[in-house]
Amino acid sequence: MTATRIDASKLAQKSEPFSFNEQQKNSLFAQLKKQRGILSQSDISSLCQQYEVSQLELQKACVPVASLFSVAPISKFYVGAVAVGLNKQGETNFYFGANVEFSHQALSLVVHAEQSAINNAWLNGAQAVQKIAISDAPCGYCRQFMNELSTADSLEILLPERDFNLHELLPHSFGPKDLGNEECLFSHKQRDKQFAETSINDEKLVQLALNAYVPYTGNFSAVRLSTYTEGDFYGSYAENAAYSPSLSPLQSALSQFYLAGLTFDDKTVKSITLLETQGAENQYEVAKSVLASFENPPAFEHCVAKLVND
Ligand code: THU
Ligand code: ZN
Asked: Which of 47, 127, 135, 184 minimizes the number of CB atoms within 10 Å of its CB?
Protein backbone atom coordinates (compact mmCIF):
# COMPACT_ATOMS: atom_id res chain seq x y z
CA MET A 1 0.00 0.00 0.00
CA THR A 2 1.40 3.39 -0.87
CA ALA A 3 1.07 6.13 1.72
CA THR A 4 -0.86 9.23 0.60
CA ARG A 5 1.51 12.11 0.20
CA ILE A 6 0.46 15.35 1.85
CA ASP A 7 1.38 18.39 -0.19
CA ALA A 8 2.75 20.75 2.48
CA SER A 9 2.71 23.80 0.19
CA LYS A 10 -1.06 23.41 -0.34
CA LEU A 11 -1.69 23.07 3.39
CA ALA A 12 0.29 26.21 4.07
CA GLN A 13 -1.88 28.18 1.64
CA LYS A 14 -5.08 27.41 3.49
CA SER A 15 -4.78 29.60 6.57
CA GLU A 16 -7.52 29.82 9.18
CA PRO A 17 -9.92 32.74 8.70
CA PHE A 18 -9.51 35.64 11.10
CA SER A 19 -11.59 35.41 14.28
CA PHE A 20 -11.87 37.47 17.47
CA ASN A 21 -10.75 36.05 20.80
CA GLU A 22 -13.21 36.13 23.73
CA GLN A 23 -12.03 39.47 25.07
CA GLN A 24 -12.13 41.14 21.64
CA LYS A 25 -15.62 39.72 21.09
CA ASN A 26 -16.85 41.07 24.42
CA SER A 27 -15.43 44.51 23.81
CA LEU A 28 -17.05 44.73 20.36
CA PHE A 29 -20.31 43.43 21.85
CA ALA A 30 -20.24 46.23 24.45
CA GLN A 31 -19.63 48.84 21.72
CA LEU A 32 -22.44 47.43 19.58
CA LYS A 33 -24.97 47.49 22.43
CA LYS A 34 -24.34 51.22 22.80
CA GLN A 35 -24.64 51.69 19.02
CA ARG A 36 -27.80 49.55 18.77
CA GLY A 37 -26.27 46.92 16.54
CA ILE A 38 -24.63 49.14 13.92
CA LEU A 39 -20.98 49.76 12.99
CA SER A 40 -20.35 52.93 11.01
CA GLN A 41 -17.82 53.29 8.21
CA SER A 42 -15.29 54.84 10.58
CA ASP A 43 -15.79 52.01 13.12
CA ILE A 44 -15.23 49.51 10.30
CA SER A 45 -12.08 51.28 9.09
CA SER A 46 -10.55 51.46 12.54
CA LEU A 47 -11.34 47.80 13.28
CA CYS A 48 -9.85 46.76 9.91
CA GLN A 49 -6.70 48.70 10.79
CA GLN A 50 -6.53 47.46 14.35
CA TYR A 51 -6.81 43.79 13.36
CA GLU A 52 -5.10 44.13 9.96
CA VAL A 53 -7.98 42.52 8.09
CA SER A 54 -10.05 43.34 5.02
CA GLN A 55 -13.65 44.56 5.32
CA LEU A 56 -14.86 41.15 4.19
CA GLU A 57 -12.77 39.33 6.81
CA LEU A 58 -14.07 41.72 9.45
CA GLN A 59 -17.70 41.18 8.39
CA LYS A 60 -17.31 37.41 8.70
CA ALA A 61 -15.49 37.70 12.05
CA CYS A 62 -18.38 39.84 13.36
CA VAL A 63 -20.92 37.02 12.91
CA PRO A 64 -20.18 35.30 16.27
CA VAL A 65 -20.56 38.71 17.93
CA ALA A 66 -23.99 39.09 16.26
CA SER A 67 -24.99 35.71 17.76
CA LEU A 68 -24.45 37.17 21.25
CA PHE A 69 -27.60 39.29 20.69
CA SER A 70 -29.73 36.18 20.13
CA VAL A 71 -32.72 35.62 22.42
CA ALA A 72 -33.55 31.94 21.96
CA PRO A 73 -35.20 30.56 25.11
CA ILE A 74 -36.85 27.72 23.16
CA SER A 75 -34.17 26.38 20.82
CA LYS A 76 -31.06 27.70 22.58
CA PHE A 77 -29.79 27.94 19.00
CA TYR A 78 -28.07 31.29 18.70
CA VAL A 79 -27.99 32.61 15.14
CA GLY A 80 -26.11 35.76 14.10
CA ALA A 81 -26.10 37.76 10.87
CA VAL A 82 -24.22 40.84 9.67
CA ALA A 83 -25.58 42.72 6.65
CA VAL A 84 -23.48 45.24 4.79
CA GLY A 85 -25.05 48.21 3.08
CA LEU A 86 -24.51 51.81 2.06
CA ASN A 87 -26.27 54.59 3.94
CA LYS A 88 -27.66 57.80 2.38
CA GLN A 89 -24.20 59.40 2.50
CA GLY A 90 -22.78 56.48 0.52
CA GLU A 91 -20.89 55.15 3.56
CA THR A 92 -20.59 51.44 4.29
CA ASN A 93 -22.23 50.27 7.51
CA PHE A 94 -22.53 46.87 9.19
CA TYR A 95 -26.01 46.05 10.43
CA PHE A 96 -26.15 43.25 12.99
CA GLY A 97 -29.01 40.85 13.56
CA ALA A 98 -29.92 37.85 15.71
CA ASN A 99 -32.89 35.52 16.16
CA VAL A 100 -35.61 36.33 18.70
CA GLU A 101 -37.97 33.64 20.02
CA PHE A 102 -41.15 34.15 22.05
CA SER A 103 -41.83 31.62 24.80
CA HIS A 104 -45.37 30.23 25.15
CA GLN A 105 -46.36 31.51 21.71
CA ALA A 106 -46.52 30.04 18.21
CA LEU A 107 -43.05 29.16 16.92
CA SER A 108 -43.96 31.00 13.73
CA LEU A 109 -43.66 34.36 15.55
CA VAL A 110 -39.87 33.97 15.74
CA VAL A 111 -37.69 36.66 14.15
CA HIS A 112 -34.84 35.07 12.19
CA ALA A 113 -31.35 36.51 12.43
CA GLU A 114 -31.36 37.39 8.71
CA GLN A 115 -34.65 39.28 9.09
CA SER A 116 -33.28 41.08 12.14
CA ALA A 117 -30.13 42.25 10.28
CA ILE A 118 -32.03 43.30 7.15
CA ASN A 119 -34.69 45.05 9.22
CA ASN A 120 -31.91 46.85 11.12
CA ALA A 121 -30.46 48.07 7.81
CA TRP A 122 -33.88 49.04 6.42
CA LEU A 123 -35.00 51.00 9.46
CA ASN A 124 -31.71 52.78 9.88
CA GLY A 125 -31.29 54.34 6.48
CA ALA A 126 -29.42 51.75 4.41
CA GLN A 127 -30.10 52.26 0.72
CA ALA A 128 -29.63 48.57 -0.05
CA VAL A 129 -28.03 45.42 1.34
CA GLN A 130 -25.27 43.95 -0.84
CA LYS A 131 -23.99 41.08 1.32
CA ILE A 132 -25.07 39.23 4.40
CA ALA A 133 -22.81 37.00 6.50
CA ILE A 134 -24.63 34.37 8.56
CA SER A 135 -23.57 31.83 11.19
CA ASP A 136 -25.59 29.01 9.60
CA ALA A 137 -27.20 28.28 6.25
CA PRO A 138 -30.31 30.43 5.82
CA CYS A 139 -33.58 28.49 6.06
CA GLY A 140 -36.10 28.49 3.21
CA TYR A 141 -38.18 31.16 4.91
CA CYS A 142 -35.18 33.54 5.09
CA ARG A 143 -34.24 32.84 1.47
CA GLN A 144 -37.79 33.89 0.62
CA PHE A 145 -37.58 36.96 2.90
CA MET A 146 -34.36 38.02 1.14
CA ASN A 147 -35.95 37.51 -2.27
CA GLU A 148 -38.03 40.63 -1.56
CA LEU A 149 -34.93 42.87 -1.51
CA SER A 150 -34.09 45.33 -4.29
CA THR A 151 -30.73 43.51 -4.50
CA ALA A 152 -32.16 39.96 -4.63
CA ASP A 153 -30.51 39.33 -8.02
CA SER A 154 -27.01 40.11 -6.77
CA LEU A 155 -27.22 39.47 -3.01
CA GLU A 156 -24.20 37.58 -1.68
CA ILE A 157 -24.67 35.18 1.20
CA LEU A 158 -21.49 34.56 3.13
CA LEU A 159 -21.49 31.35 5.16
CA PRO A 160 -18.66 30.05 7.35
CA GLU A 161 -17.67 27.41 4.79
CA ARG A 162 -18.36 29.18 1.50
CA ASP A 163 -20.22 32.01 -0.20
CA PHE A 164 -23.29 31.90 -2.44
CA ASN A 165 -25.56 34.17 -4.44
CA LEU A 166 -29.17 34.16 -3.32
CA HIS A 167 -30.33 32.74 -6.66
CA GLU A 168 -28.03 29.71 -6.19
CA LEU A 169 -29.83 28.99 -2.91
CA LEU A 170 -33.29 29.85 -4.26
CA PRO A 171 -33.56 28.75 -7.88
CA HIS A 172 -36.89 29.07 -9.74
CA SER A 173 -38.06 31.45 -7.06
CA PHE A 174 -41.40 33.03 -6.27
CA GLY A 175 -41.25 36.77 -5.72
CA PRO A 176 -42.96 40.17 -5.83
CA LYS A 177 -43.31 40.17 -9.63
CA ASP A 178 -45.40 36.98 -9.49
CA LEU A 179 -48.03 39.08 -7.74
CA GLY A 180 -47.61 41.96 -10.17
CA ASN A 181 -45.73 44.01 -7.58
CA GLU A 182 -42.98 46.18 -9.08
CA GLU A 183 -41.91 47.50 -5.67
CA CYS A 184 -39.41 45.79 -3.41
CA LEU A 185 -37.97 46.16 0.06
CA PHE A 186 -35.47 49.08 -0.10
CA SER A 187 -36.95 50.41 -3.36
CA HIS A 188 -37.38 53.80 -1.60
CA LYS A 189 -40.50 54.68 -3.46
CA GLN A 190 -41.52 58.28 -2.83
CA ARG A 191 -44.95 58.19 -1.25
CA ASP A 192 -47.30 61.12 -1.06
CA LYS A 193 -49.45 59.48 1.58
CA GLN A 194 -50.56 61.23 4.70
CA PHE A 195 -52.68 60.35 7.70
CA ALA A 196 -55.76 62.35 8.48
CA GLU A 197 -55.68 63.84 11.99
CA THR A 198 -54.36 61.27 14.51
CA SER A 199 -53.94 61.42 18.25
CA ILE A 200 -50.27 60.52 17.71
CA ASN A 201 -47.85 63.36 18.16
CA ASP A 202 -44.77 61.32 17.33
CA GLU A 203 -43.65 62.27 13.81
CA LYS A 204 -41.12 59.42 13.66
CA LEU A 205 -43.83 56.83 14.34
CA VAL A 206 -46.10 58.42 11.72
CA GLN A 207 -43.34 58.46 9.08
CA LEU A 208 -42.39 54.85 9.80
CA ALA A 209 -46.01 53.77 9.42
CA LEU A 210 -46.35 55.69 6.14
CA ASN A 211 -43.09 54.16 4.87
CA ALA A 212 -44.00 50.61 5.82
CA TYR A 213 -43.47 48.16 2.96
CA VAL A 214 -47.06 46.97 2.48
CA PRO A 215 -47.63 46.30 -1.23
CA TYR A 216 -49.94 43.36 -0.50
CA THR A 217 -52.36 44.71 2.11
CA GLY A 218 -51.88 48.46 2.40
CA ASN A 219 -51.73 47.94 6.18
CA PHE A 220 -49.46 50.93 6.88
CA SER A 221 -48.23 50.31 10.40
CA ALA A 222 -45.42 50.94 12.84
CA VAL A 223 -44.63 50.41 16.52
CA ARG A 224 -42.84 52.44 19.14
CA LEU A 225 -41.43 50.63 22.14
CA SER A 226 -40.67 53.14 24.91
CA THR A 227 -38.32 52.32 27.77
CA TYR A 228 -37.89 54.06 31.11
CA THR A 229 -34.23 55.02 30.68
CA GLU A 230 -32.96 53.69 27.34
CA GLY A 231 -34.99 55.77 24.90
CA ASP A 232 -37.42 54.60 22.23
CA PHE A 233 -37.17 51.78 19.68
CA TYR A 234 -39.18 51.68 16.49
CA GLY A 235 -40.35 49.04 14.06
CA SER A 236 -42.15 49.11 10.74
CA TYR A 237 -44.13 46.49 8.83
CA ALA A 238 -42.28 44.66 6.01
CA GLU A 239 -44.40 42.34 3.91
CA ASN A 240 -43.32 39.44 1.72
CA ALA A 241 -44.80 38.10 -1.50
CA ALA A 242 -45.14 34.67 0.11
CA TYR A 243 -46.88 36.35 3.08
CA SER A 244 -45.57 34.08 5.87
CA PRO A 245 -42.07 35.58 6.10
CA SER A 246 -43.55 39.09 6.58
CA LEU A 247 -42.16 40.91 9.63
CA SER A 248 -44.75 42.60 11.83
CA PRO A 249 -44.01 46.08 13.20
CA LEU A 250 -43.84 44.80 16.79
CA GLN A 251 -41.40 42.02 15.86
CA SER A 252 -39.39 44.64 14.01
CA ALA A 253 -39.31 46.99 17.05
CA LEU A 254 -38.50 44.15 19.45
CA SER A 255 -35.58 42.96 17.37
CA GLN A 256 -34.24 46.55 17.43
CA PHE A 257 -34.68 46.62 21.21
CA TYR A 258 -32.71 43.40 21.65
CA LEU A 259 -29.89 44.79 19.47
CA ALA A 260 -29.26 47.27 22.29
CA GLY A 261 -28.62 44.27 24.56
CA LEU A 262 -31.64 45.05 26.75
CA THR A 263 -33.95 42.64 28.57
CA PHE A 264 -37.69 42.87 28.08
CA ASP A 265 -39.17 43.27 31.57
CA ASP A 266 -41.40 45.68 33.45
CA LYS A 267 -38.44 47.61 34.85
CA THR A 268 -37.17 48.37 31.36
CA VAL A 269 -40.12 48.61 28.98
CA LYS A 270 -42.62 51.36 29.72
CA SER A 271 -45.12 51.07 26.86
CA ILE A 272 -45.84 49.85 23.35
CA THR A 273 -47.70 51.96 20.80
CA LEU A 274 -49.04 50.47 17.59
CA LEU A 275 -50.19 52.78 14.82
CA GLU A 276 -51.97 51.25 11.84
CA THR A 277 -54.34 52.15 9.05
CA GLN A 278 -58.05 51.85 9.51
CA GLY A 279 -59.72 49.14 7.50
CA ALA A 280 -56.61 46.97 7.49
CA GLU A 281 -56.07 46.43 11.21
CA ASN A 282 -54.03 43.25 10.86
CA GLN A 283 -51.43 44.02 13.46
CA TYR A 284 -53.46 44.29 16.64
CA GLU A 285 -53.93 40.56 17.24
CA VAL A 286 -50.35 39.71 16.24
CA ALA A 287 -49.05 42.34 18.65
CA LYS A 288 -51.24 40.96 21.44
CA SER A 289 -49.92 37.42 20.85
CA VAL A 290 -46.31 38.56 20.89
CA LEU A 291 -46.85 40.60 24.05
CA ALA A 292 -48.63 37.70 25.74
CA SER A 293 -45.33 35.85 25.78
CA PHE A 294 -43.98 38.27 28.42
CA GLU A 295 -44.74 38.22 32.12
CA ASN A 296 -46.28 41.56 33.16
CA PRO A 297 -46.54 42.99 29.64
CA PRO A 298 -46.31 46.79 29.45
CA ALA A 299 -49.12 49.22 28.63
CA PHE A 300 -50.27 48.68 25.05
CA GLU A 301 -51.78 51.55 23.07
CA HIS A 302 -53.46 50.83 19.73
CA CYS A 303 -54.01 53.82 17.43
CA VAL A 304 -55.94 53.59 14.22
CA ALA A 305 -55.52 56.27 11.58
CA LYS A 306 -57.10 56.95 8.24
CA LEU A 307 -55.10 57.80 5.15
CA VAL A 308 -56.02 61.06 3.46
CA ASN A 309 -57.83 60.44 0.13
CA ASP A 310 -58.29 56.77 0.80
N1 THU B 1 -32.99 30.53 12.64
C2 THU B 1 -32.56 31.71 12.09
O3 THU B 1 -32.47 32.73 12.81
N4 THU B 1 -32.24 31.75 10.78
C5 THU B 1 -32.35 30.66 9.96
O6 THU B 1 -32.43 30.82 8.76
C7 THU B 1 -32.39 29.34 10.57
C8 THU B 1 -33.16 29.32 11.85
C9 THU B 1 -33.41 30.51 14.04
C10 THU B 1 -34.92 30.44 14.21
C11 THU B 1 -35.03 29.79 15.57
O12 THU B 1 -34.91 30.81 16.53
C13 THU B 1 -33.81 28.90 15.67
O14 THU B 1 -32.88 29.38 14.69
C15 THU B 1 -34.10 27.44 15.42
O16 THU B 1 -34.70 27.27 14.20
ZN1 ZN C 1 -34.48 31.65 8.57
From this structure: 127
